Predict the 3D structure of the following.
Amino acid sequence: QSALTQPPSASGSPGQSVTISCTGTSSDIGGYNSVSWYQQHPGKAPKLMIYEVTKRPSGVPDRFSGSKSGNTASLTVSGLQAEDEADYYCSSHAGSNSLGFGGGTKLTVL
Amino acid sequence: EVQLVESGGGLVQPGGSLRLSCAASGFTFSNYNMNWVRQAPGKGLEWVSYITNSGSDTYYADSVKGRFTVSRDNAKNSLYLQMSSLRAEDTAVYYCARDGGRAWDNDCWGQGTLVTVSS
């Protein structure tokens, strides 16, 4: 089953923008508009930040945005704030009634 | 307030069994498909299992197929994960998560329960 590829780390200074990539295949990211992104602070449960590639749940700041091109999805965090420091995970429907997650990216706010 | 609360985790020997529960509140549980997702210590998220709102259909990751069984009791607003033939690599925090009903997104998560498989 699907294991999506994310960079292990990313960083940016307060106020800057940072983009995290998530690479899959035509069997998952490229085949469905079902990419989600989750934020996880240490010791806490994941929180949904983006669904259906580009949509934000109620309450998620519009500093968070998602996109997709081919087999690669991206999460962009604009106007970085200290509280954005966390682990971020992408996920995608992977066919055959399964869900794949990326390995996670640790975002550091410098 | 939408809430999911897992329980049932603990220490179990390799080859043993354990049943996790997830109590749902604050929403109409029977309207939602549900997932189990796990996270090994210091590692990333791994999808484990999915069950439809009625319980009629269930799906599993290859890593747990044949060993884990997901079920639910809509009258009790509860989700379950029966785990058997446990292995060291099943050690993880297990989260129940509500499927958002859109595109395999999980819009609400419990706090997780830790399962440790060790002799």
Summary: Chain A is about 0% helix and 45% strand.
